[in-house]
Specification:
Radius of gyration: 18 Å
Number of strands: 7
Number of domains: 1
CATH architecture: 3-Layer(aba) Sandwich
Order of helices and strands: EHEHEHEHEHHEHHE
Strand content: 5-15%
Low-confidence stretches: none
Shape: globular
Structural class: alpha/beta
Largest sheet: 7 strands, parallel
Length: about 290
C-alpha cells in the first residue's frame, strides 16, 4: 500500500469498459488485511451489501464476514469478482449468498430481498453501496438516458431495496448508505453523480429520524478517491494513473481503509450514532 506523500507515480495508465472488473486492475485494490483477526463484532448478524462483488463493497463484505456475519451481496454482472468475494468470505466462516441482478429496476430489488429472506429469514445490516458514474464535460452532454440511469442506480435503488428490506429488520438493525465527498464539494464533470450523492445524504438524515422509533439506525459513509473498478471504467487512462493525487495524502485510498467505517456503523460500537456521515477521504476538510 503506497504511503502518504510518496513521490513515485501512483499507478500505470489503464482503462476498462463498464462496469469494470477488479481482477483486471493493476495494482489490485487491497480488500482485506488478513493479518488482522476478527473480534466477533457482527457475530450471528445477517448483512446485505449491494455492489458487494468488488471495490468498497467487497472490502465491506469480507470484513463483515471476518467479524462473524453471514453475508449476501448483490451485483450487476461481474460474476468472477463476485465469486472471489464469496471465496474469501467463506474462508472466514460466512454463509455467503451472491445475487446477480440490476438494482436500477424496482422489481429486481424486491426479488433480491425475497431471495435473501428465504435463505436467512431476516436482515440485520443493510449496506446500500451500488453506484455508477460517467464523466461529461458540460451539463448539455448529460443525456436523459444517462441521467435516469445514474439516479436509478444510485438513488432510486436505495429507496426500493430499503423499502423491501425494512419489514425484515428489527430493533437494533443498521442501514449504512454510501455517499461521496462529491456530495459536499461537487464535481464539475460528474454533475449527475454528485447530485445523487447529495440526495443520499438527505435520504440518510431523513430516514434516520423516521426509523428512530423502530430502533433502526441509519448512517452513511462519504469516501474520497478510492481505488475501485469504477475508476478505470469511468475515467481516461491518464487520469486513472494520477487518480487520488489531489487530496492532502496525495494518493487514493484502498477499499480496506474505508470498510472499517462501515463496520463501526454496523456494530454496537455505534449504538448512539444515527443520521451521521463518516468521511474517509485522505484529509480533505468537509463541513458536513
Amino acid at each position: 500500500m503506497q504511503k502518504s506523500g510518496d513521490s513515485k507515480p501512483l499507478r500505470k495508465p489503464q482503462h476498462q469498459h463498464k462496469p469494470g472488473q477488479q481482477s483486471k486492475m493493476d495494482p489490485q485494490p487491497v480488500s482485506d488485511r488478513a493479518e488482522i483477526k476478527g473480534t466477533g463484532k457482527l457475530k450471528g448478524k445477517i448483512a446485505v451489501v449491494t455492489g458487494g462483488d468488488s471495490g468498497i463493497g467487497r472490502a465491506v463484505s469480507i470484513l463483515f464476514a471476518k467479524e462473524g456475519a453471514n453475508v449476501a451481496i448483490i451485483y450487476v454482472s461481474e460474476k468472477n469478482d463476485a465469486e472471489e468475494t464469496g471465496k474469501i468470505a467463506k474462508q472466514y466462516g460466512s454463509d455467503f449468498l451472491a445475487i446477480e441482478t440490476d438494482l436500477s429496476k424496482e422489481k429486481n430489488c424486491i426479488a433480491a430481498v425475497s431471495k435473501i429472506v428465504k435463505k436467512f429469514g431476516r436482515i440485520d445490516v443493510l449496506v446500500n453501496n451500488a453506484a455508477t458514474h460517467t464523466e461529461q464535460e458540460k451539463l448539455e452532454d448529460i443525456s436523459t438516458k444517462q441521467l435516469m440511469q445514474t439516479f436509478s442506480t444510485n438513488v432510486f435503488s436505495m429507496f426500493w431495496i430499503t423499502k423491501a428490506a425494512l419489514p425484515y429488520m428489527k430493533n437494533g438493525g443498521a442501514i449504512i448508505n454510501t455517499t461521496s465527498v462529491t456530495a459536499y464539494r461537487g464535481s464539475d464533470k460528474l454533475i449527475d453523480y454528485a447530485s445523487t450523492k447529495s440526495a443520499i445524504v438527505g435520504f440518510t438524515r431523513s430516514l434516520s429520524s423516521n426509523l428512530i422509533a423502530r430502533g433502526i439506525r441509519v448512517n452513511a459513509v462519504a469516501p474520497g478517491p478510492i481505488w475501485t473498478p469504477l475508476v478505470p471504467s469511468s475515467f481516461p487512462a491518464k487520469k486513472v494513473a494520477k487518480f487520488g493525487s489531489e487530496v492532502p495524502m496525495k494518493r487514493a485510498g484502498e477499499p480496506v481503509e474505508v470498510a472499517t467505517c462501515f463496520l463501526f456503523l454496523a456494530s454496537d460500537d455505534a449504538s448512539y450514532i444515527t443520521g451521521q456521515v463518516l468521511h474517509p477521504n485522505g484529509g480533505e476538510i468537509i463541513n458536513g
